[in-house]
Input
Amino acid sequence: MTIILLLVISSAASFVGTLAGGGGLIGMTSLLLIGLPIHQVIGSVKFPNMFSSFSSFYTLFKKKHLKLKDALHLIPFALFGGFCGGLLVNSISEKAMNLLAICLLTANSI
Output
């Protein structure tokens, strides 16, 4: 039953995110409400963003709005930022992350 619920939540969040944006707000809130740990929720919400970002990059590159030389210069900054973000999130306790998530989700919905 939980797998079906997760499938419905992720499908609805993806649908809304594709049409209007903000699918992560629905998905993250729903996953927290069914009791998944916050660090797992963040990973679950961010993983599809990797594919979305890559497809946006590929579209810009294919339409010649972005040069490969410029993109290659940005790769170290992107990797460094992702690495530092992962370390930061792992250094924060689950209780503090839940409080932070509630505050940020509330501020985002206003």
In short: The chain has a mean pLDDT of 85. DSSP finds five helices and no strands in the chain. The first helix runs from residue 2 to 19.
